[in-house]
Amino acid sequence: MRFFLALCVFCCGCSFAFAESKEVTKRIYSNYLRGLFLVEEGDYRQGLSELEKAKKLDPESLHIRLKIAGLLIRLGEIDRAENELKAAKKINPQNFDVSFALMILYSYTQRDKELESEYGDFLKRAHTLKPDDIKISESLAQYYFYKKNYPEAIRLYETIVKNNPQYVDGIFLLGFFYEGVGKHQEAIALWKRALTIDPVHAPTLNSLAYIYAEAGTDLDEAQRMVKKAIEKEPDNGSYIDTLGWIHFKKKEYAIALVQLKRALSLTKDPVIYEHLVDVCIAQNQQADAVSYCVEGLVVFPDNKNLIERFRKYGTKNTVPQKQSH
Predict the structure, then answer these.
(1) What is the pTM of this model?
(2) 20 to 30 Å CA-CA from 53: which of 96, 179, 260, 281?
(3) Mean pLDDT score of the chain
(4) Any residues with CB less than 8 A from the CB of 194 and at least 6 apart, and which?
């Protein structure tokens, strides 16, 4: 019921596309108001009938179609509701209320593919309408990155950072996107710039520390940075994983193992499992390494790095599969 009521509220600002005839307008109002009254009284079918009459008199009204779609969902007629909303979108493809209603319908019916498509379309139109809105631009950029359209994601964030040169979160995320496409030096330069603006920006401190750890360079500086990040977020498993990985690179394996175990207790992440395997192998603890491989593959059965490690250090048995519950 909450879903139906919420859907009915979306278009409170919409106007009817009234015909010129006062008599027709009067009949539309009569059918529409009678329909709402019947719905309020719990007579959904008769209410739907009255709303359909109003729609027939004013087929261009998005408001009426949205009310009908909400009522159809309440009656469990999802396909009809979707058709009603798609018809409304054909009438006005730019209407945000209709798109929002479609997104809720797809979410309600767990149709992720359609929801994703409608959400992308929604963001693109919102960005066209408000190109300088940072939140809309960021949402669209992150959508593009999720869809692996990296050039568009980077282009949007470059624009955000250009227009907002002190926006640390934007600088950090542009660096994150650069790192994701292999532009390591560009990412490092941006993260250093971000730290001149906010020296204790935890995500930037951690990311820069991790990229140093991966390269095996500036490990003392990397350790100092990630410790500052952990001071701000002491229970962040990703940050503690970075610290453990720095100790691994320093060949301080016992300390690395302690940190990585703590990281895993806070965050289940395939990278942490990979790091634990590598630390165990460095200490000639092959059985423990295989055990972490198995545990990780139960949670992340498609992780290629864990599969590779299992085949290298484990037996010739089949790679473990995710358990069903």
Answers:
(1) 0.74
(2) 96
(3) 88
(4) 168, 171, 172, 175, 201, 204
